[in-house]
Amino acid sequence: MSDTAVRTAFVTGASSGIGAATARALGACGFAVGLGARRTERLEEVVKDVERAGGRAFCAVLDVRDAGSVDAFFDAAEAALGPANVVVSNAGIGFARLLGEYTQAELRTELDTNLLGPMLVARRAAPGMAERGAGDLIFVSSLNAVAPRTFQACYSATKAGLETFVRVLQMEMEGSGVRASVVRPGPTGSEFGADYGAERTRRVLESWRYWGGMRELRWMEAERVADAIVTVAMTPRGTHLDVVQVVPVGTRKGPL
Ligand SMILES: NC(=O)c1ccc[n+]([C@@H]2O[C@H](COP(=O)([O-])OP(=O)(O)OC[C@H]3O[C@@H](n4cnc5c(N)ncnc54)[C@H](OP(=O)(O)O)[C@@H]3O)[C@@H](O)[C@H]2O)c1
C-alpha cells in the first residue's frame, strides 16, 4: 500500500483531551476519522469540529474495557468509513490515590481501561491490517511508564505494562507491514486529573516535586501530543518511530 493511501483513522478516548485533539489533527490532515468513547454527546461535538474544518468523521459509543463494545465500535466505524489504516489507542484513566486508598473496583477500572483496553483494541484491529499488508497501531502511554510517580502506583504499572505489551506486539507484527508504536507524553493539559480537588492536587504535586517527578510545574497543550501522534502515523513506510516521548521543554538553567 502506498503512503498516500493511508486515509482512515480510528481514535479511542476521542471525547476530550489528547484523543479529541488527535481526531481534529488527523481530520485536518485528510483522514476520515472514527471516534470512540463513552460520552457520545462530547464525541458529536468533536465530529462537528472535524466537519467544520472540511473533514469527514463518524462517532460511536465505545467502552474499551469490554471486548463486545470494542468489536461493535470497530464494526460500526468500518461500515461507516472503511477499515482503519491507523488506530490510536488513547483512552485512559488515572486516579490520584495512595495504594491503601484504592478500592478493588478502582484498581480494576484502571487496569481494564489502560492495559486490557489497548489489548482488546489491538486484537480487533491488527489481523485486518496484517491482511491488507499495512497499518499503524499507535498507543498513548505516559512518562509514568519510565518515571513512576507516587499516588499513581496502579496507573504507572498499567503504562509500564502497556509499553511491554507494545514491544511484544512489534515483534509479533514484524514483516506484516503493521507498525506498533508508543507515544509517551509528559504532563499535558486535559480533563485528566480535573477531579482530584485542590487539596489532593497540592499534596500530589508536592510529593512529585520531592521525588523528582515534576521539576517544573508546566503542562503541554493536548495539540502538541496530537502533533506527535500524527507524525508517527505519517512517517513514510520503511521507517518506524517506535517510541516517541513528548515533554514540555525545560525553561530554567540548572546548576552546572
Ligand atoms: N494529561 C496528561 O498529563 C497525560 C500524560 C501522559 C499520558 N496521558 C494519557 O493520555 C491519554 C488521554 O488522556 P487525556 O490527558 O487526554 O485525559 P482526558 O481528557 O481525561 O481523556 C481521556 C479519554 O479517555 C476516554 N476514556 C476513559 N475511559 C474510557 C473507556 N472505558 N472507554 C473508552 N474511552 C474511555 C475518555 O472518554 P469518556 O470518559 O467519554 O469515555 C476521554 O476521551 C490517556 O491514556 C492518559 O493516560 C495523559
Task: Give the topology, please.
Elements: E1 8-12, H1 17-28, E2 32-37, H2 40-52, E3 56-61, H3 67-81, E4 86-89, H4 104-132, E5 135-140, H5 153-173, E6 178-185, E7 188-189, H6 198-210, E8 220-221, H7 222-234, E9 243-246
Parallel strand pairs: 1-2, 1-4, 2-3, 4-5, 5-6, 6-9, 7-8
Helix pairs in contact: 1-2, 1-7, 3-4, 4-5
The structure holds NADP nicotinamide-adenine-dinucleotide phosphate.
Question: Overview of this structure, please?
Answer:
The protein has 256 residues and is of the alpha/beta class. The chain has a single domain (3-246), classed as Rossmann fold (3-Layer(aba) Sandwich), CATH 3.40.50. Helix content is 45%, strand content 17%. The protein is built from 7 helices and 9 strands, in the order βαβαβαβαβαββαβαβ. The strands form 2 sheets. Strands 3-2-1-4-5-6-9 form a 7-stranded parallel β-sheet, sandwiched between helices. It has a two-stranded parallel sheet with strand order 7-8. α1 (17-28) packs parallel to α2 and α3 runs parallel beside α4. The longest helix has 29 residues, at 104-132. The chain is globular, with a radius of gyration of 18 Å. The mean pLDDT is 95. NADP nicotinamide-adenine-dinucleotide phosphate is lined by residues 12-19, 37-39, 42, 62-65, 90-94, 113, 140, 142, 185, 187-188, 190-192, 222.
